[in-house]
Amino acid sequence: MYTMKILVCISKTPDTTAKIAFTDNNRKFVTDGVQWILNPYDEWYALVRAIEIKEKDPSAVLHLIMVGGPDCDVVIRKALALGGDEAIRMNTEPGDSFYVANQIASVAKSGGYDLILTGKETIDYNGASVGGMLAAVLDLPFISLAAKLELTGDMVTLVREIEGGEETVEVKLPLVVGCQKGMAEQRIPNMKGIMGARSKPLKVMEPVAAESLTEILSFELPAAKKGVKLIPAENAEELIRLLHDEAKVI
Amino acid sequence: MMKRRSFDDRALILFPIFKILIMSVLVFIDHSEGQIKKTSLEALSYGAALGKQMAVPAEGVLLGNVQEDLSSLGKYGIQKIHQLNQESLNQLDAEQYIRIISTIAESSGATVIILSHTNTGRAIAPGLSALLKAGLVTGATELPHTENGFSVKKNVFSGKAFCTVSIKTPVKIISLNPNVFPVVTGTGTAEIIQENISLKTSAVSIKSTSKASGEIPLTEAEIVVSGGRGMKGPENWGPIEELAKLLHAATACSRPVADAGWRPHHEHVGQTGIAIAPNLYIAVGISGAIQHLAGVNRSKVIVVINKDPEAPFFKSADYGIVGDAFEVLPKLIQEVKKLKGLA
Prior knowledge:
The complex is a heterodimer of chains A (250) and B (343).
Chain A lengths: L4 E5 L2 E3 L7 E2 L4 E2 L6 E3 L1 H17 L4 E7 L5 H10 L3 E5 L6 H15 L3 E5 L10 H9 L3 E11 L2 E8 L2 E8 L2 E5 L11 H9 L2 E4 L8 E7 L8 E2 L6 H9 L5
Parallel strand pairs in A: 1-6, 1-8, 6-7, 7-13, 8-12, 9-12
Antiparallel strand pairs in A: 2-5, 3-4, 9-10, 10-11
Helix pairs in contact in A: 2-5, 3-4
Chain B lengths: L1 H21 L1 E6 L1 E2 L2 E2 L1 H17 L3 E6 L16 E5 L9 H14 L2 E7 L2 H14 L2 E6 L10 E6 L4 E7 L4 E5 L14 E4 L9 E8 L11 E5 L10 H9 L3 E4 L1 H5 L20 E5 L5 H7 L4 E6 L12 E4 L2 H15 L4
Parallel strand pairs in B: 1-4, 1-6, 4-5, 5-11, 6-10, 7-10, 13-14, 13-15, 15-16, 16-17
Antiparallel strand pairs in B: 2-3, 8-9
Helix pairs in contact in B: 3-4, 5-8
């Protein structure tokens, strides 16, 4: 019987409640005290859907890949606690999306993966680019913003979001999919998973030569709001006048 | 040696002038149901402004066909429209689009390619970037700085911050956030160039398409009316829908509301749902958790209606009403009706 190979691309991001601040002349994100988590789109949708596929077909092989330094290992173990057979870490600071896509592509090329899943974007840099770039580098079809994925043999049926609606499409394996809400439900790792994750292989690989096409020059925070103008509830209709005459938005 | 150097210097001075002649800004024009998307009109206006700034022509590329006379797109400041008039291209086919746009970009000497950061833009911009080895910035919020290098501002940390990104490659790709650049209309007529590029067999076969007709897509809406747990149940959404309809607004909701099944998932705005940037966001019965704010804090004006004066959302609001939504909403509806001459 054919062994299905799945690769899930994961990334670490600051916790959704992390304080966003910058230092070094606004060139660096302040990481002190930041709790790092698995990027929610990678975790809740891409990884959990891959785990579901493996639960249905236990012969399937599920690998995770992250590009980053040793500080990523804690987050990778958390992902392994949810599921997956082994993880690969490309030992390099992630440059831009093109650099990251090329690192993953080097593993994907030799690994013979049938299905490569990513989250639709990371919640820190919001690039939404690695999946599409990876597909182009590998010359594979790419389905973006996928909300459903079903496998029948080597045929994949997906529901993807398009402008103003959604579309059901069919694609043959292999392919790359960007996953979003609808794909699967968030899971909490259980004790057995957490214990098991410790003994799963985490392979560290050295990066391949690749370039970054872009570079972040500086960060800035949005201008602070002036403060709220409160309208008494009994004069609620006054709000409509303000929106019309003052803010000029209606 | 000195002579050689001065010759090289002169060549260097002349070379950029020569290059300007073959450079252009190329804007991808998306359409649906025969209509050009409003986000594409924004992208055209942005591309035209960038072309002006760089002193190069701005051109457009449209795959498939629309009802509108394409030459009229000249009024947005576009000189030429490249069209590949194939019926099959009226549906999104990312691989095909990427191949065609890159071919046209190369033949037209495009040095900057502009798309919208929409569902279509997300499907094609990354692949286009990898294929052309052209640096990509997604979700741009402003015109680039082109005087010293080439850099552009974008949203990061899910709307909680911005960063300025330098693109280092000769060809640059930018996807523009919806609703951050105004549609600028002038006069002019664009020249239509019918492209002849053969299509490949598609790897993706489309089985069915469902588009919500009549509804305003959330990411395109200029006004959004959104409800949270404070609405107490799905049966109470009537006033939100009525207010939205009167304001030509889209409806949205917070994550707990979508998770509870009160409203469909595609209405969920926030860090893990949809990020929006309307001109006006009206939040009713939403406390304003940081994850919700991440999806809406790019809105130009935020109105918060909540009975809890301590709701954190008030800190991010421009206007607020502390009160019961079920008493406040009917008053607002009545007043909007008066404003629109309906009452």
